[in-house]
Recover the amino acids of this structure.
């Protein structure tokens, strides 16, 4: 069997000391998470986080920086199934507006704004340790430019990169 980590993205949005999070139902348990989800085929990481934020919160998210890249090995089987490994790319950004009346993703109960202290107080409800870690890294000022990410979607992108590299170096 081939091992493959789940590649996920998450949006870290802060407004007036509160963070945009979702309450989602996972196997009958109500948990708290950042707007987050899996990378889909042919999608860039930036496209994925914009899509996930909209689908889960109805807010339009504008990524501004990468907060961090996290590899989390779920130590044991969880309520969601067998132990898995997640590779999460967390993005900081802002939200521009919310689409009122938009239906949220299956399992998402609601979007809400919570302070770090409120997240800590509900730590038993956090979907994973990544939720608080991303908030703490954001609060510590960790920001990496979006340009650290590259998305090569075809052989022509690869050829163009090779051509450009030979001209500059």
């Amino acid at each position: 069997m081939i091992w493959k980590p789940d590649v996920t993205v998450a949006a870290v949005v802060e407004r007036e000391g509160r963070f945009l999070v979702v309450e989602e139902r996972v196997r009958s348990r109500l948990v708290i998470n950042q707007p987050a989800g899996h990378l889909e085929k042919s999608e860039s990481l930036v496209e994925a986080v914009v899509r996930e934020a909209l689908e889960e919160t109805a807010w339009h998210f504008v990524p501004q920086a990468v907060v961090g890249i996290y590899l989390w090995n779920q130590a044991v089987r969880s309520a969601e199934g067998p132990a898995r490994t997640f590779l999460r790319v967390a993005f900081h950004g802002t939200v521009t507006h919310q689409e009122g009346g938009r239906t949220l993703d299956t399992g998402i109960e609601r979007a809400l704004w919570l302070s770090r202290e409120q997240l800590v107080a509900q730590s038993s409800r956090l979907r994973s340790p990544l939720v608080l870690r991303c908030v703490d890294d954001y609060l510590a000022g960790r920001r990496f430019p979006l340009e650290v990410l590259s998305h090569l979607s075809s052989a022509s992108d690869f050829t163009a990169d090779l051509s450009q590299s030979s001209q500059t170096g």
